[in-house]
Amino acid sequence: MQVQSALLFESPEQIYARVFRELRPRTPMPTFVIHYRRFANANSFIRMRDGIIEARITDVLQGAPAPIQEALAWILLAKLFRREIPPAASDRYRRWMNRSDVRRHLHLLRQSRGRKYISGPQGQHHNLDTLFEELNQRFFHGLMGRPELGWSRTVSRRLLGHFDPSHNAIIISRVFDSPSVPRLALEYVMFHEMLHLQHPVDHSGARRCVHTRDFRAAEKQFPQLKEAKAILKTL
After folding, report:
1. Cα-based distances in Å from 13 to 9, 20, 55
2. Cα–Cα dist 14/169, whole Å
């Protein structure tokens, strides 16, 4: 009970100093500066400069229990010093972040604080509204409500498309808005993101499954799935 009570009254700087000492017992103790920031997501950052370790932590965690603060300290410091993240710390942190009340809070923060660039559906060669409705009729009986649709700011070859549930938007990479890229690839990426509307992310304990079993089964409805994926590899 004394150990638990001590943990409850530790400042964030004390928590990070204690974890640092366990992680690097022979290294001189740096100065720790911990800031809580009004981020639009759950990301937190850490850096070391001139003997000072500064952590910028999402304010979602400002009222989190001390064990969660400690788990994040292990995660950030392990990343900073290129050490393996302790599985227990990762599991504890993921379980807390996967709680329904925390996810609901983050969802509201993304809506109120986040800024989403949405170019609109019309590209130089393709219109995403038209494509969405074609796929809606072919695969969803025309019943899927259309979200905001837009092209990415840049011609991204890494992030080909994504669905943002907080802003109800599908963004497609401009790499597909070209006559040199087969339309089949664009159709598949749009279909894939539409499935994310139909099959939300599954949260269970520390587990976060983006592509569930039902999602994978539905994806196989795409008639030229292998051909489309082969085209994506060439990009």
Report:
1. 11, 10, 9
2. 41
pTM over 0.85: no
Q: Please, what is the end-to-end C-alpha distance for the chain in angstroms?
A: 58
Span 67-107, pLDDT tens digits: 999 999 999 999 999 999 999 999 999 999 888 888 888 87
CATH 3.30.2010.10 maps onto the chain at 128-234
- CATH code: domain 2-113 is 3.30.2010
Q: Both tokens of residue 126?
A: 């393709």
| Residue of 150, 152, 149 whose CA lies nearest to 174 | 152
Q: Which residues pair with 204 in a beta bridge?
A: 207
Cβ(85)–Cβ(79) below 8 Å: yes
Q: Which class does domain 128-234 fall in?
A: alpha beta
